[in-house]
Write a structure and sequence with these properties.
The protein is of the alpha/beta class and 384 residues long. The protein contains 18 helices and 13 strands. The chain folds into two domains: 187 residues, Glycogen Phosphorylase B (Rossmann fold); 189 residues, Glycogen Phosphorylase B (Rossmann fold, 3-Layer(aba) Sandwich).
């Protein structure tokens, strides 16, 4: 088959949608190398590449107008390029498919990661919410198959868009296999020195937005400030909510306890940090990952932590128990005292931690690159 992908986020996105796209493309191209894969990228970039994969071809807009109006090319005009490259199946990796692709004879699949804009509309501007709803609903109505990345997302698609459940398959995502490889001590030391990491630290990775709930981690840190001196390293960026968190930190004199690593020049100007290549070494030196999000489509940092063999504190709501399995330490995300309690357990009970790490590692085996890409390939094959 000639399989095409909406590769905008694979080439340009440094957060969850980008990680999902890159990991899936690489997994498919490696494990099912009898097929040809075409990545339809609206704009050139040097941030990420797939040059090492011989069965992967990048396709960029060619005409002057398509280059200037790359968003229109991606959402509509790309159909001509799909036909030119004899694409059999097109996969919209993040909620969208080209308008009227169903009239071309090309089969289409769309991945829906979450419907957070429907469940929590107050967290979005009205214009953004309306655009998302229009695009997501169109994709769900017109794609031949829908991939939901968790059972939670499948339930939301059915609830909000009244989609026929038989059209939706849950195909879990994996993460970069680098997280599962033991980083040599010398490399970890190099990373520690490069980013001035403390000897011990808790870790948070994610966008700095309301539902990711960093503020309640800081409140837990405040509750523990007289008992535990271990800092929190934060990887991620934001605007309004980030400032809200920083205001709380300043007010409660936690400035030396919360390290915004993404603000460091060493991180800002490091290609290996921006591409997340250095993240496995940062994860593997952490005491624990703390990820008490109030709602997720899946929660990839949880899986990355399980692969890294570190304990995970995460939420007992949404899809996060799907991601964390039996190996995670669960909390009510709205109760900082529960987060603090689990932090204390991890510090004080080494036997419990080792048990959790082993359970987490076993749970993570469900999400290997081979298993997750095989599920997607099986879905593709159902269409022919």
């Amino acid at each position: 088959m000639n399989i095409g992908f909406d590769a905008k986020r694979a080439f340009h996105n440094q957060t969850g949608l980008g990680h999902y796209s890159r990991t899936l493309i690489r997994s498919l191209a490696t494990n099912f190398n009898q097929h040809q894969y075409f990545l339809f990228n609206p704009k050139p970039t040097s941030l990420f590449h797939f040059l090492d994969l011989k069965n992967v071809t990048e396709v960029l807009p060619q005409s002057f107008l398509a280059k200037k109006l790359s968003s229109v090319w991606r959402s509509n005009w790309v159909k001509k390029d799909l036909q030119k490259n004899k694409i059999d199946l097109y996969h919209g990796l993040s909620h969208e498919i080209p308008v009227n692709i169903h009239n071309t004879g090309i089969k289409s699949v769309v991945t829906i990661h979450d419907l957070i804009h429907e469940r929590y509309p107050e967290q979005y501007k009205r214009i953004d919410r309306n655009i998302y709803t229009k695009k997501f609903r169109y994709a769900c109505n017109h794609a031949d198959k829908i991939i939901a990345i968790s059972n939670q997302t499948k339930e939301d698609i059915i609830e909000f868009y009244k989609t026929n459940p038989s059209k939706i398959e849950v195909c879990y995502q994996s993460c970069n296999p680098a997280f599962g490889k033991v980083i040599p001590a010398a490399e970890k030391q190099r990373i520690k020195e490069q980013y001035q990491l403390p000897d011990q630290y808790f870790l948070y990775v994610g966008s700095l937005i309301e539902r990711k709930n960093l503020l309640n981690i800081c409140k837990a840190m405040q509750l523990l400030q007289d008992e535990i001196k271990i800092p929190l390293v934060v990887i991620g960026n934001g605007t309004t909510y980030k400032q809200k968190v920083k205001d709380y930190i300043s007010l409660n004199k936690l400035d030396d306890r919360i390290i915004f690593l993404s603000d460091f020049p060493a991180a800002k100007f490091s290609p290996s940090f921006q591409s997340a290549a250095d993240f496995p070494a940062i994860y593997q030196q952490a005491i624990a990952m703390i990820y008490p999000s109030t709602f997720e489509g899946f929660g990839i940092p949880v899986l990355e932590a399980l692969w890294s063999r570190i304990p995970v504190i995460t939420s007992n709501v949404s899809c996060l128990p799907e991601a964390g399995g039996d190996g995670a330490f669960y909390v009510d995300p709205l109760k900082p005292e529960e987060i603090a309690q689990q932090m204390k357990r991890i510090i004080n009970d080494e036997h419990l931690v080792q048990e959790a790490i082993e359970k987490g590692w076993q749970h993570a085996q469900k999400f290997t690159n081979l298993n997750t890409s095989a599920a997607v390939m099986h879905l593709y094959e159902q269409l022919f």
